[in-house]
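Students often ask what a 'structure token' actually looks like in practice. Rather than answer in the abstract, let us consider Ubiquitin-like protease family profile domain-containing protein, a protein of 207 residues. Its sequence is given first.
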Amino acid sequence: MPQTGVTVQAGGVVYNVIMLKAMRSWQTAIFRFVGIESAMKWVEKYDETAWTTDDSIWTEGVADKATLIDFLKQVNVLGDIYDATGFCRETPLESSSMDLGIKAIIQRPSEGATMFTVPSEILRYPWFSQDAGASTFDDTESPKRFRFTRIDLAPQLDDYNCGVFVLLFIDLQLYGVQVTGLDSESLSREAMEFFRYRHLSLILASM
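Now compare that with the structural description of the same chain:
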């Protein structure tokens, strides 16, 4: 049966397929309007003085609270840009929010940069020592080596900020600078909230 031949009657009103699909979008829009309001409240409560840095590179392009709220009011609630509101909650970042954050990051450096990454979906099982009955890992027999970079930052105190740490690592690789003022464990949460605010600002400014 073609879709044009399907109708639903409820409360004396007949709805065709086109109207039913539109109603589904309405439901999504209403739900997301609530999300936008929550995001604006998060921005209003954000304390700009809780954590600061002397490096202007991290504050460059970051909107003030009034401007950021205006950006949120302009968000297309049915578009992908809505996922930027994931930075306004104390929850782990979804992959869609991470994608928006990475896109905003790589658009900023004036010069080209290359990063080598290993997708998380790739599993590489290690070689084990034959003499140990495959019970002890022997890294000397591993057939491959991956280059890696280690950066010492503040401890991650909240599991929901792991995505922010990943984005910060990418930022550090592209800019080639360290973050001053992030050497205190007591300020780790405030710093991550700053970077959540920063990523939200950069994403929405690129709309």
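One point worth highlighting: The chain has a mean pLDDT of 79. Ask yourself how you might have guessed this from the sequence alone, and why that guess would often be unreliable.
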